Amino acid sequence: MNLRGRIDKLFEVASRNKPANTFMDLDDFVEYFTRFPMTHEPDFDECLAEFKAAIAEAKAQGDPPYTPEGYLPLDNMGAVVRLSLYRGENFPRLEAATEWLFELHRRIHGEQPPCGSNEFIELARWFAANKDRLQQIEQATPRGLLSLGMSTDEPLWAIKSNLEEGARAEGSGKTAERVRQLRRLYPA
């Protein structure tokens, strides 16, 4: 899901508890995630602290402004998306922190198991240590793809690319689960 889709979905979910004609800003997500913490995620507290710090840093920056003139969205979703894209371009730390927080949120709603940064690093190391062996298995399959069970095939290059994005990236929970499946199906 792209940035626009992520923002639309999360603003829809978070704004359910807000009165009409009220804009859900990133500050409101701090309250939302504080009230409904993702305690099963090992890195949640660190993630929320980074998100709060990134918002504070972006607001303190001043130039460019955190919310420029003419960007007060109220009920205008187009303005919400423009503001989010503006912030993503001008405040990279805030964009990275938002992506990480939304990834943890997606794991809960996507019913994926939790995955902390330490486990993700361990999975990436296992993958790197077994990559050559897995490539031989992959090349021997009729379609050139490794089976991950339950009618799911995945090219190794895609898993490797996703692992390189890191534990905080969009889709990192799904990537971790794929490597866990590889480890179960193709033990060393």
Would you give an account of this structure?
By secondary structure, this protein is mainly alpha-helical. The chain is 64% helix and 2% strand. The protein contains 8 helices and 2 strands. Strands 1-2 form a two-stranded antiparallel sheet. Helix 4 (77-90) packs across helix 5, helix 6 (117-140) runs antiparallel to helix 7 (156-165) and helix 6 (117-140) crosses helix 8 (172-185). The protein is elongated. The protein starts with a helix and ends with a helix. The mean pLDDT is 80.
Summarize the structure.
With 188 residues, the chain is mainly alpha-helical. The protein contains eight helices and two strands; from the N terminus they run ααααααββαα.
What structural class do helix, strand and pairing data support?
mainly alpha
Strands, total number: 2
Q: Span from first to last CA?
A: 34 Å
Radius of gyration: 19 Å
Helix content: 55-70%
Biggest sheet strand order reads: 1-2
Main β sheet profile: 2 strands, antiparallel
Total number of helices: 8
